[in-house]
Amino acid sequence: MLSSDIGSPLPKFEALRLWLLVTAWLSALLMKFFGLSVHGFTIFGVICFLLFAVMTLPRLRWDSLVILAGMIALTFLLLPKMPSMEALLGAIEYVLIFAALLPTMALVKATAMTMPSVHLSQKNLASLPSAASVSGFQITSHVFGGIINTGTFAILSAVLPPDAAEGDRRAAAEAAIRGMATSAAWSPFFVGFAVGQSFVEPHYAWMAIGFGVFVALLFMACSLPLINRDFSHRQVGMAIACLRPVASRLAFVFGCVIATALIFKLTALAAVVCTMPWLVALQMARKPATIPHIFQQTKIALANIADDLIIISAAMIVAFLVNRYNNIGEMMQLFYPEMLPGWVALIGTPLVVTLASVFGIHPVISTTGLLTIFSGGGADVHPALLVEAHLIAWGAGAMASIASLSVISTSGLFKVPTHKLAFGKNILIAFTYALGGGIVLTLLNTLMW
């Protein structure tokens, strides 16, 4: 995939760095398929991931370096003693699956961009009347975003005519961000879902998907008529009709992931990582001519995910070590000796994460800390609802942060300044979504717990 015959050749340093990531990706896949029988190769993958991280440090953005420095300081503050080498290697092995998830999603995005059904949905969306376009962008982005995440922005941005007015581009960009960000409430294809499920038993994470579908539908039902002055129910039907070419394929993908999880008793994260490469291979077999393009786009994506991969992995290593020493629980006892009320976790998590995102703190940092505090009996909350609160927080944070990958990607593709997207209409919507979602979960928690 990274050889010079596919796309332009890479410098030797870059080629080695990406091959290390690919090796770590492969070792994570084999670990999930074969378990302890390939433990030796898993250790090799851990070493490759460590080398990739070291070689990537000089390439990180300054804000990523600041976040990493803060996490290192936090680790020394929270841990009662220096972790052993065995604990560190265990932590890296624990997060190795994240080295598989992001490259897997890059591969899925590259594949989706070659599918005629996706292009047909794109064409249908472009033909919508202007009064229905904002609703169409939000609904389409929500559905596509549940599978290919930020890849949906490339699809939607191509729908706009080159001479579109700034106001139209901004409205479309804001709608695309809202749709994609709120799909994090139910989609197992988000990193946020992988982070959340690592704090609870797997069946609670699957329950969270059901709650997420309810929250997402409720948000759509409220937001579409309130945001769009020319809204009509006919617009919803027109937007849904745009998705008809891809509906069966999306249903097939979800069915395969869920079936894999149930049959092999895998977490949602492991099911996504283990299932999607096979589905991509099936698509490649059907359309061999697309293989060079898919490999080329995946290669480009792998070169651009370093910051997200390193930050997410570092945050999960800190969470793993803190949970191993159970230090957060002991510290919380000093401030609040009893179990925290459920509403504190369910309303507080989305609001705190959204507020932190406004100041550029990535949701993976804030939600990991809050989940560490509230999970495992820290709050009087149903575990599935706690995961859902985290997912709502993840989506709201993506809407309201100038450092959000969603905002940054959309800004470039739709040609709208990042500050207008992060601090415009969506910032109020993000806080409303966070508060409203937290209240709904609190009511559900009262009924269930």
Task: Identify the notable features of this structure and list them briefly.
mainly alpha; single chain; disordered N terminus; globular; 449 residues
Structure explained in plain terms:
This protein is mainly α and 449 residues long. The chain has one domain (60-448). Helices cover 78% and strands 0% of the residues. The protein is built from 23 helices and no strands. It has helices at 12-34, 39-56, 62-78, 85-95, 98-112, 116-126, 130-148, 151-157, 166-182, 191-197, 202-227, 233-242, 244-264, 268-286, 291-304, 306-325, 327-335, 342-358, 363-374, 383-400, 405-414, 418-422, 425-448. Helix 5 packs parallel to helix 14 and helix 10 packs antiparallel against helix 20 (383-400). The longest helix is centred in the middle third of the chain and has 26 residues, at 202-227. The protein is globular, with a radius of gyration of 21 Å.
Topology:
Layout: H1 12-34, H2 39-56, H3 62-78, H4 85-95, H5 98-112, H6 116-126, H7 130-148, H8 151-157, H9 166-182, H10 191-197, H11 202-227, H12 233-242, H13 244-264, H14 268-286, H15 291-304, H16 306-325, H17 327-335, H18 342-358, H19 363-374, H20 383-400, H21 405-414, H22 418-422, H23 425-448
Helix pairs in contact: 1-2, 1-5, 3-16, 4-16, 5-14, 5-15, 7-8, 7-9, 7-12, 8-9, 9-20, 9-21, 10-20, 11-20, 11-23, 13-14, 16-19, 18-19, 18-20, 18-23, 19-20, 20-23
